[in-house]
Specification:
Helices cover about 60% and strands about 0% of the residues. The protein contains six helices and no strands.
């Protein structure tokens, strides 16, 4: 047994099961449908603006339905978020069993994290500007 212990090996599977259950719920229930039981974005409710994450639930539903173009139309980061979720889970699971190498993200310098944060903030700002070419960024 590794130094992580049995609990450390179960955690990625428990979290993966929870994410899979949530993903199944999103896949089977259209967040865009009238009477949807999905919560609205708190940032949007408070400010009236689109946050960088607005549209991700609808985008994930479209992605699960196989419509990548629609997913990207809701939020350009939808496929990226899906890949990051799966990749992080895979890395966590391998780490729990002692078979992982350092991830790409763990080797990213601080300037890389600042750049990622800057892109997300810039996206949040651009999707709220009232310019015709940028209206496509709103969900």
């Amino acid at each position: 047994m590794s130094r992580i212990g049995v609990g450390g090996r179960i955690a990625p599977f428990a979290a993966g099961g929870a994410v899979a259950a949530a993903g199944t719920y999103v896949a089977l229930n259209d967040p865009s449908a009238a009477g949807s039981r999905f919560p609205s974005c708190a940032f949007r409710e408070l400010t009236g603006l689109w946050c960088p994450g607005c549209g991700l639930t609808r985008g994930m539903h479209a992605l699960f339905s196989g419509d990548v173009a629609e997913a990207v139309s809701y939020n350009i980061f939808t496929p990226v978020v899906a890949v990051v979720i799966v990749g992080a889970w895979w890395w966590w699971t391998r780490r729990a069993f002692g078979t992982s190498r350092p991830s790409v993200l763990s080797r990213l310098p601080a300037t890389g994290w600042v750049a990622i944060a800057g892109v997300v903030v810039l996206y949040g700002v651009l999707r709220n500007l009232p310019l015709d070419p940028l209206r496509a960024l709103a969900p």
